[in-house]
Design goal:
- There is one protein chain.
- With about 100 residues, the chain is mainly alpha-helical.
- It contains five helices and two strands; from the N terminus they run αββαααα.
- The chain folds into two domains: about 60 residues; about 30 residues, no CATH class.
- The longest helix is centred in the middle third of the chain and has 20 residues.
Length: about 100
């Protein structure tokens, strides 16, 4: 992960956060697909250097503004039920009503 992070930085890829065995990256929408492909290749190369073998890399989620992670996760994904419930409360105005009282 450290090697991949350094290589990504040197390639001009903005890392928003490392997450366990993955990275969340940021790029302008017009450059996002290229940044994802470059990051994937960087991670494969880093795995090859460290482990001596190709380690598969997949893209688990691709979030494009104005979406957020809750908008693209599968319905049974961890935390998705809570996200859906909170969004419903926001959409209904219930949370704003609670704050006003």
């Amino acid at each position: 992960m450290r090697l991949a992070a350094i290589a990504a930085y040197e390639a001009g890829i903005r890392i928003a956060a490392p997450v366990h065995d993955a990275f969340w990256i940021m790029a302008p929408l017009s450059e996002l697909s290229d940044a994802i492909a470059a990051m994937k290749e960087i991670m494969i190369k880093a795995g090859r250097v460290v482990a001596g073998i190709d380690i598969p890399v997949d893209v688990a989620a691709e979030v494009r503004w104005p979406q957020c992670l809750g908008d693209v996760r599968k319905p049974k994904a961890k935390g998705q039920a809570m996200w859906t419930e909170i969004q419903a409360l926001l959409d209904s105005g219930a949370l704003q009503a609670m704050e006003a009282s």
